[in-house]
Design a protein that fits this description.
It is a single chain. The protein is mainly alpha-helical. The N and C termini lie far apart (43 Å). The chain contains nine helices and no strands. The longest helix has 39 residues. Helix 1 packs across helix 4 and helix 3 packs across helix 4.
Length: 191
Amino acid sequence: MQMVILFLEFFKIGLFSIGGGLATLPFMYDLAEKYDWLPMEQIPDMIAVAEATPGPLGVNMAVYAGFQCAGVVGSTIATAGLVAPSIIVIILVYLFLEKFRQSKTVDWVFYGLRPVVVGLIASAGFGVMVMALFSMDAIGAQGRIDWASLLRWKEWILFLVVLLAARKWKEMHPVVWIAIGAAAGIIFHMA
């Protein structure tokens, strides 16, 4: 039964996360709240691993989350669930290509989807930033905030250094920045 749920959850993500890998993040947060096989605090790790490995972000996150749930079989089922809607839509588009090419309705739908996709990606980016730079443990049970431990100082320093360096050396490939961030994360974690 767990495999069916895994497939259906990722099918839903694949069906509604229009806009790429970051658009899947609100759905991942929802999964983390519903199921114990994807803890909320592992989502930043999942994003880091998915961004650092080759392949589409959404598929890499499905592999990671599926593996957390049920190992290799879970990875396969989650990935199949995620890509199945795209395959179905591509087949349907192919079958009706001429009608879709000249349809004003399709143009209007895609026009309306643009701001929604931007909102989903912005929301996901904001959520990742909050989880990476702020300690949610600093917020107590009664909503009291321990201001001294709210900011994750090492992460803020790394964020600001990489942000400033990336603005100064714009010609560096993003893979270099990912490698630098991974190395700094390992060093900071061990320190």
